[in-house]
Amino acid sequence: MSFSSLGLSADILRAVEEQGYREPTPVQRQAIPVVLSGQDLMASAQTGTGKTAGFTLPLLQLLSAKPSDVKGRRPVRALILTPTRELAAQIGENVQAYSKYLRLRSLVVFGGVSINPQMMKLRGGVDILVATPGRLLDLEHQNAVDLSRIEILVLDEADRMLDMGFIHDIRRVLAKLPAKRQNLLFSATFSDEIKALANTLLTRPASVEVVRRNTPSELVTQNVHFVDKKRKRELLSLLIGKGNWQQVLVFTRTKHGANHLAELLGKDGITAAAIHGNKSQGARTRALANFKEGSIRVLVATDIAARGLDIDQLPHVVNYELPNVPEDYVHRIGRTGRAESTGEALSLVCVDEHKLLRDIERLLKREIPRIAEPGFEPDPNIKAEPIQNGRQSQRGAPRGGDRSGSERHSTAPRRQRSGEGSPSGEQRRGGQGKPAASRSQGNGQRRPARARSE
Ligand code: AMP
Hints:
Blueprint lengths: L9 H9 L7 H11 L4 E4 L6 H15 L12 E4 L3 H14 L7 E4 L6 H8 L4 E4 L1 H9 L10 E4 L2 H6 L3 H10 L5 E6 L4 H10 L4 E4 L10 E7 L5 H11 L5 E4 L3 H13 L4 E4 L5 H13 L4 E4 L1 H4 L9 E4 L6 H8 L9 E7 L4 H11 L5 E2 L15 E2 L2 E2 L10 H9 L2 H4 L21 E2 L5 E2 L7
Parallel strand pairs: 1-6, 1-7, 2-4, 2-5, 3-4, 5-6, 8-13, 8-14, 9-11, 9-12, 10-11, 12-13
Antiparallel strand pairs: 15-16, 17-18
């Protein structure tokens, strides 16, 4: 099937062709006709499936085919909400590229940078706004943006938005939108919370499911290498050098760990930079740009900072430490093997992480193949020190609970556990340092988050 058979205009097709896309991906094949028909959509699609073009291309087509009937300043007609700044910036770039030949204006707004330029640009009139929820609300409170003319709403990575505690912000935004509009909801997973949100948001939606829930792309080769914690860095440097890996995204669990590893790799002569929530937006953007253009070989990232990162044909992802939450493993390795390219995901697993590995394999419903570099076999005398709350616990301390218990714990205060204080570095107000996600209160009940993005 070709893009031209999907009913997109010549100007959009031209822009798509310039991107080098030869044919639509499965999510695009399914979602584009639905969106063009004006129907609501609930799509289960992970980053890397081409979902951004799946909603952006038809959205552009709808907006350009029917100019706004509002006189004077252009009202915002399409709103794309995303959980993180990086994702917002990437979607913004895609919108720009796909709308190159259209007379539509788009703008990306997120926190952590000055609000004034954003207000100025809004004043000039914007058709498509890509935003993180907190900054959007700030702009709205300051009357810098009018959301009453929104025709199409996209909630992207809705599962992550809920994980990050944005549900109240989302509801506040929804309250500002006109009742009559088209809604598109994209989520990698469909928890009960997402289903509840979908029920209130969507009217008779078409559903599109592209990759089975929590299934990594088949284009990603996965391997596990057991190794002692103290020798992980040495092994990583060796593998990068031996394999002549030129572009490697490495995940650590904490911001401190990311900094430290980037520094040590530098000492090994491997150019590396860390990105995480404590880095300024400028530093993160610079590091990502350097990584994309190849002037640094390794980008060391925490889960939140890397969420939604779109790096063309990224060949290698390394889990330097396994994530506490098994689903994050799928998100992490989804950075490679995107669209049509293949990739390799390697997890360096020390004895402390065996339980985390078991949880991941249970989620994947299969064992990840083991590989071993001679000379790096784990020392059998080193015994596990289970990880709790991002720190090594006392040896022999009980881990507490069955799988469902640990899930409940791990899904709620995930950000704090991973050492990441704020979603993608979004500054929090009102949260007083508490994690944004709804939290378990010990009695298993959830209390709504108070924090918000900026
Ligand atoms: P996404 O899932 O939207 O983050 O897209 C993942 C990557 O796939 C991005 O680098 C897109 O530029 C690329 N992409 C999107 N659609 C296509 C397509 N039809 N053919 C090839 N690459 C694509």
